[in-house]
Amino acid sequence: MKRRYAEFNLKRKLLTPAQAQARTALLGELANRARYGGNPEHKKTPGDFGLTPPSDPRQGKSLCDAAKIFKRDEAEKLLREGLRNGLVSDRMAGEWPKNVWSVTEDGLAMEAQLENPDLGSYHGYPMPETDPLSLEVIRRWKYLNG
Fold it and tell me: What pLDDT is stored for residue 50 in this prediction?
C-alpha cells in the first residue's frame, strides 16, 4: 500500500547543498536580520514571546511547548542557525526563504514559516515525526553540525 502524506505540504523542498553553499553570504546576512515573531496557535505557555492573545493553542497545531522552547531568544537562535546552515526553502518571498529548518539540542526537527517578508519575521513549530521532510532536516543538520 502506498503511503500518503496528505497533511504535509509536499511543495516544501530544501535547497540542495550546492545551492545553499552558493548563497552562504546572503544567508548569513539574512540570519543577522531575521526575527522570530511567534504564533499563539503554537503555544500553550506563552513564555516571553509577548503574543496576543497570550496563548491560544488550536487543536491540530503542533506546540512549541513540546520542543521546550519558551523564550524568544531560543527560537531566534534556532532560526538563525537554520539560515546559516542553508536549511532553507527553495521558494522565496522577496529575499526571504518561505521556510527555514533547524534541529533542537534534543534532536527535534523544527520548521519556521515566514510570516512577514517586510520584517523578515517567522513563526515556528516542531515537525511531526511522520513528516517525511523531518528526517531529511535531521540528516542534514547532523552532517553540518557533527
Answer: 60
For 80, residues 6+ apart whose C-beta sits below 8 A from its C-beta are 31, 32, 34
- Give the pairing type, strands 35-36 and 92-93: unpaired
Other Cβ atoms within 10 Å of 50 Cβ, number: 10
- 3-state secondary structure at position 6: coil
Whole-number pLDDT of residue 69 = 75
Q: Average model confidence (pLDDT) for the chain?
A: 83
The Cα–Cα gap between 44 and 138 comes to 25
Comparing 4 with 24, which gets the higher pLDDT?
24
Residue recorded with cell 546576512: 29
Q: Is the peptide bond before 53 cis (omega within 30 degrees of 0)?
A: yes
Which ranges of the chain does DSSP label H, i.e. alpha helix? 17-22, 24-33, 72-84, 132-145
CA distance 21 to 23: 5
Decide if pLDDT at 7 tops 80. Answer: no
Cα-based torsion angle of the residue sequence 99, 105, 107, 112 in order, rounded to the nearest 10 degrees: -10
